[in-house]
Design a protein that fits this description.
about 35% helix, 3-stranded antiparallel sheet, Recoverin, domain 1, alpha+beta, about 90 residues, about 10% strand
């Protein structure tokens, strides 16, 4: 009798470009620009087309929500304090 270990995972789903654009709320040019910049999930080649892993797109969306809900904790450029502990001054 042999023992096998089964790993149960949620099913993975691949999204088409239109689905990614609808979920992310971004135009196509911005999605590809952010992929090039490394700030959006990379596409997966499938035959002569490409798809995106749903879980990666959802994680990207969740990260944007977390940045909104917890500003300044992710090292972003929105607000914050300068080295003296004061809010940064606006340029004249």
């Amino acid at each position: 009798m042999s023992s096998t270990t089964e790993i149960t995972q949620a099913p993975r789903r691949l999204l088409r470009l239109k689905q990614v654009l609808d979920r992310a709320g971004l135009p196509k040019s911005t999605v590809y620009s952010r992929i090039s910049a490394g700030t959006f999930p990379k596409q997966i080649p499938v035959g002569s087309s490409v798809r995106w892993l749903e879980s990666e797109v959802e994680a990207w969306i969740k990260a944007r929500v977390d940045e909104r809900d917890h500003p300044g904790q992710s090292g972003g450029t929105a607000g914050g304090i300068d080295g003296d502990g004061d809010p940064p001054r606006l340029a004249a």
